[in-house]
Design a protein that fits this description.
The protein is of the alpha+beta class. Helices cover 37% and strands 18% of the residues. The strands form 4 sheets. Strands 1, 4, 5, 6, 7 and 8 form a 6-stranded mixed β-sheet that branches. A hairpin with a 4-residue loop joins strand 9 and strand 10. Helix 2 packs across helix 10. The longest helix is centred in the C-terminal third of the chain and has 32 residues.
Length: 333
């Protein structure tokens, strides 16, 4: 039913496919916040007395090693897949509904349920875009999101693997606010694979040859470029560059080329329009909670949350389609 409704929106011309906006909203789970168990007590859930559908589903995911990092410090014995989170007040158990909408008129093209965990929400982007491309042969030219979707690895995926323009604020920690030189003050030489400081000195990933080839990629998916101590020791602007260290280091993301593209896009008029288009997905969340009254789930488990989110999204799509198509049908009579 849901796929048919979304396919109807595409056939009627309500989905342009040029731009898609993504966002997530937290919905309370059907779990008592006063009843919880520590992460170390997960083994107690295997007691047959706790063998509800939600618990069995959660244990099966653990056994299959599906997103084990979603195990939080506090777990609900009735809905262990729900994530303990604090959004705008006291902490509670919750899931996130992730919307992917076409910005032409605000038709939803996909929805995904995840635990209320930022990493899971961001990862849902790949799932939904891939699913929409497979089901509807729909691939956007641009994807719009807030800063949470400006992570380097996601930008790299959008730019390098999918050839999609990322219209998202960049998650950037390279700029300094203490009046010392930022990474942007250094010139990058792509051919030489090195930086040059304002004084013309070089920063490289390695200063000597190694018998065994090294990538120098850190666990954070960055490569450290550093200067020579002899160059920095006599530098006249050392106090403005690296006052507390003998050399200057710059951590360059392995996805920096994609980040540069995001920076350039942020300077365009199209990006300004994208920031306005993103409000359409925020309006859907407001409608979901205030009009449809979905501020708390009735079903438990990730599959239960998925069913409820899917039905709610279908209702919202049908309402939006009726609003846009009814005037057209009236004029044709």
């Amino acid at each position: 039913m849901c796929s048919r409704a979304w396919l109807s929106g595409i056939k009627e011309g309500l989905v342009g496919g040029e731009g898609l906006a993504i966002d997530a909203s937290v919905i309370k789970a059907d779990a008592n916040r006063s009843r919880s168990m520590a992460r170390e007590q997960v083994k107690d859930l295997r007691d047959p007395r706790h063998a509800t559908r939600a618990v069995r589903e959660y244990l099966s995911a653990l056994d299959a090693q599906v997103e084990p990092a979603t195990i939080s410090a506090s777990i609900s014995p009735t809905d262990p897949a729900a994530r303990w989170t604090a959004v705008g007040g006291p902490a509670f158990y919750a899931y996130s509904t992730n919307y992917l909408i076409d910005v032409q008129v605000g038709i939803m093209v996909d929805v995904e349920a995840t635990p209320a965990w930022r990493t899971a929400e961001v990862n849902a982007t790949r799932t939904m875009i891939g699913r929409v491309e497979k089901q509807f042969d729909l691939k956007p030219e641009r994807v719009i999101g807030d800063m949470a979707y400006g992570a380097a690895d996601l930008l790299g995926w959008m730019v390098n693997e999918k050839a999609i323009e990322p219209h998202v604020p960049l998650w950037d920690k390279t700029q300094r606010n203490d009046e010392t030189l930022s990474s942007s003050d250094f010139q990058w030489d792509v051919q030489a694979d090195e930086y040059r400081c304002p004084q013309g000195q070089v920063l490289r990933r390695q200063w000597r040859a190694f018998k065994k080839l090294r990538t120098h990629v850190t666990k954070a998916d960055t490569i450290l470029y550093h200067s020579r101590q002899a160059d920095c020791a006599t530098c006249p602007i050392k106090a403005r560059c690296c006052p507390n260290t003998p050399t200057r280091k710059i951590a360059r993301s392995v996805h920096e080329s994609a980040r540069e593209i995001a920076r350039e896009i942020a300077k365009t008029s199209g990006y300004k329009q994208s920031r306005k288009d993103r409000k359409k997905v925020e309006m859907l969340f407001a409608h979901l909670k205030r009009i449809l009254r979905m501020d708390r789930l009735r079903l438990r488990g990730l599959s239960g949350a998925s069913d409820e989110f899917l039905l709610a999204a279908t209702a919202q799509n049908l309402r939006r389609m009726a609003k846009w198509l009814t005037p057209i049908a009236t004029k044709g009579d």
